[in-house]
Amino acid sequence: MDLCLNPEREQWRELQLRCQSRQDDIRHIVAGILDEVKQGGDRALREISLRIDDSAPDDFQVSDAAFAEAAAKVAPELKVALENAKRNIEMFHAAQLPRKVAVDVQHGVRCIQKAVPIQRVGLYIPGGKAPLFSTVLMLAVPAKIAGCCEVVLCTPPRKDGSMCPEILFTAQLCGIDRVYALGGAQAIAAMAYGTESVPKVDKIFGPGNRFVTTAKQMVSTDTVAIDMPAGPSEVMVMADNSANPAYVAADLLSQCEHGEDSQAILLCNDAEFAEKVKAEVENQKEQLPRKPIIEESLKNSRIIVFTGEESREQMIDFANQYGSEHLIISMQRPWDIADQITAAGSIFIGNYSPESAGDYASGTNHTLPTSGWARSHSGVNIDSFMRKITYQQLSDPGLRGLSETIITMALAEGLHAHANAVAIRMKGGSK
Amino acid sequence: MDLCLNPEREQWRELQLRCQSRQDDIRHIVAGILDEVKQGGDRALREISLRIDDSAPDDFQVSDAAFAEAAAKVAPELKVALENAKRNIEMFHAAQLPRKVAVDVQHGVRCIQKAVPIQRVGLYIPGGKAPLFSTVLMLAVPAKIAGCCEVVLCTPPRKDGSMCPEILFTAQLCGIDRVYALGGAQAIAAMAYGTESVPKVDKIFGPGNRFVTTAKQMVSTDTVAIDMPAGPSEVMVMADNSANPAYVAADLLSQCEHGEDSQAILLCNDAEFAEKVKAEVENQKEQLPRKPIIEESLKNSRIIVFTGEESREQMIDFANQYGSEHLIISMQRPWDIADQITAAGSIFIGNYSPESAGDYASGTNHTLPTSGWARSHSGVNIDSFMRKITYQQLSDPGLRGLSETIITMALAEGLHAHANAVAIRMKGGSK
Fold first, then answer.
1. Which of B80, B111, B352 sits opposite A362 (nearest CB)?
2. How confident is the model over B273-330, as pLDDT tens digits?
3. pLDDT reported for residue A219
4. Cβ <8 Å between A417 and B253
């Protein structure tokens, strides 16, 4: 972990660069897969699965028997943990349900805004050696609370064709009964266009590899919404001498174990503290099974130290410019700092709020904007599963009171038919 | 306007098709412009403007003198109308400001969700013969209410190099003082990447031609958020015999005058009523200056009649499947219908709520999802200018209460460093 002391503002941009992912264009490969599934439906899904994975299930939809088997395989203590996490996530997301807004803006002119669930949503959960069943909770729980009618989930089968029991169990715990053994760009295509067995959805959520995220990006301009742009995971820790270097190091490392392209940044105001954290990182990482991944991602990671009178302000400015997915504030008066943060996905306050609390069980969502997208995007929340429809109801006198305003504006924009739609009502058109 | 009586459900998709825009790919042209501006800044903007428009202003930023001149040119009655419309839009959007959500999910575990304004937003307003200054109100008013620090606006100069006075006046009325005489894909590039004179923004809003919307789409996967996907405008009117055929015809025509690719659909339950509307459309359109445009868009428009006992339910299903940008409900018990609508941008209730009321002055926003995107996207509202950040604060006992849950889940996902970030705190790491 490089350490940088009091960088000039001109250097900040460079210090905030994320790990550049490989730039080779896979759009044409993904476009081919999307088109194949769009045209060929289930038959194409089967062909692609055989081509890429050397096998294809008889039925993409996971059977009731497979669910029952999965439930028997999940450890009892994990079931308890999942229930606990689910309860907190439910409680916090239910509290986010938006109220109805109704305003009489003037006599006889009533405006209403109401949130309505997105009808059909599709969740994607990647496979791999350690499948992230926690993401099932983070997507399925708010989908159910929002009231989405149809929630389906695609996740790839394992090498031997079986499904990860924890993912199936968690899906069922959340009330998702339609799970498809499908991965990759072809899973995204199936949910975007629909096939004989996979229903077309209105919005697709969830992380994935480059093929999955490129497919999501491509269908999002074409036919179906997506949760947010993708990028490697990241954490920023803001710390002063009230923080514990061992805790800070543990937080940086928990980010670094995600993947080789992860990034952890420590912002602090004391070089000696920084050195202590660095030593702790070196020390703790030796015990971690994912040490090889961590050593790679530490190369993308750095420590920035701002000393002097303006250090607190500089740290805040730097953090806002970075716009971190996760931001841990282990400093005195942490809420003073938090209130000045304008861009972050999720913020962790104080010495006892590690990122892993939010990753699993505090109740907040862990599907968050990366790569600086926190400047413009929210993390997944209850709104992500709803749309806000507006309604207006004008009475005859209500429209009359606004008629001159509307007609004047419409004529000035050259839209005579717009003006006429009001004028004809004011005349009382013949019925 | 074709009339279709009791179509079978298998026919619905075809009847719901929007006007297909030209499919030739302009991505490579737009990619060239984006890259040119990204690399060359203001110099590139000047070169592109000279190449495309044969002229480039000395200074892209509109001067105070130009604002003053513009204000002198706007008709006094239009100023009054703009103030009225602005007041209603302000009142309804201010009422939408989201509340802070704070929940203690369990002892010592506090979760908070707070909306924070997007710092820098860019608005694009197209040029053309009749520039749509009303869109300035629809974008600038909520941006200001949300509290965005920096709001800039790009709009192309007219043929003679001058700016549309109504656009400048409305921008100033809304408190936007940085307006740039810039149009096309190069304007989007300037706001996405920043140049010497145009600031980089976090999110870009507003309609535009194919070059503008393609540029928005392309930068949205790269660097900056956008309001929503683009498509031609559309209205659906649901009517029964309680509606007035002349009013309905006027509403259909007001949609049709927008552009040749606009679409207007009438859903009703009586063939005789449908014929009356059709006759009114023919009759009213003769008086309208935009008759040539209307005659084109009427070719994309149609009347669907569902008769029989289930007509009300069929109309609702058809409307939900279509997912209209604007939906006018001129039927008995209109709120019964409205409450069953799951996909629409903005809904107009009753016989005195024409679309033009919402286009200008009722207080709702007129920047709405088209082409069926209403199934997954909201129209522009106060949320569009904010992000929701989550916060969590756990106390030592709070984390202790969750530690087993977190550690169990982290280990089951193979993420030991995540588990360690909790375990080290429970041991009380040496400081």
1. B111
2. 999 999 999 999 999 999 999 999 999 999 999 999 999 999 999 999 999 999 999 9
3. 95
4. yes
Averaged pLDDT score across all residues of chain A = 95
Task: Return d(Cα A338, Cα B182) in angstroms, integer.
Answer: 37
A377 catalytically annotated: no
Per residue in B190-210, pLDDT tens? 999 999 999 999 999 999 999
Helix (H, G, I), strand (E, B) or coil at A326: strand
User: Rounded distance, CA B206 to CA B391, Å?
Assistant: 32
Element (H, E) at A178: strand A178-181
DSSP bridge pairs for B109: B106, B394
Give the torsion sign (CA, A277, A283, A287, A293).
Answer: positive
**Burial class of A406 by CB neighbour count within 10 A (0 to 12, 13 to 18, 19+):** buried
Q: Smallest Cα–Cα separation from A86: which of A141, A144, A28, A132?
A: A141
- Burial of residue A287 (CB within 10 Å: 0-12, 13-18, 19+) is exposed
Residue whose pair of structure tokens reads 């084109």 in the numeric block:
B296
Q: What are phi and psi of B153, to 5 degrees?
A: -135, 130
The β-bridge relationship of strands B150-155 and B225-226 is unpaired
Across B268-288, b (16+ Cβ under 10 Å) vs e yields bbbeebbebbbebbeebbeeb
Cβ atoms of B349 and B335 within 8 Å: the answer is yes
How far A34 CA sits from the closest chain B CA (Å)?
18
Say whether A342 and B119 touch across the interface (CB within 8 A). yes
Residues A12-54 pLDDT 10s:
999 999 987 665 689 999 999 999 999 999 999 999 999 988 8
Question: Is residue A258 among the annotated active site residues?
Answer: no
What's the CA gap between A87 and B105, in Å, rounded? 8
For residue B419, the tally of other CB atoms under 10 A from its CB is: 24
Task: Please say whether the beta carbons of A109 and A347 come within 8 A.
Answer: no
Q: For B331, which DSSP code?
A: S
- Under DSSP, is residue B51 helix (H, G, I), strand (E, B) or coil? helix
CB contact burial B354-371 (16+ within 10 A = b; e otherwise): bbbbbbbbbbbbbbbbbb
Q: Which residue of A has its CA nearest to B130?
A: A413
Q: What is the pTM of this model?
A: 0.96
Q: Three-state SS for B255?
A: helix
Tokens representing residue B148 in the block: 């965005």
CB contact under 8 A, B402 and A351: no
Q: Can you give A375-394 as a three-state secondary structure string?
A: HCCCCCCHHHHEEEEEEEEE
| C-alpha span between B240 and A267 (Å, rounded) | 65
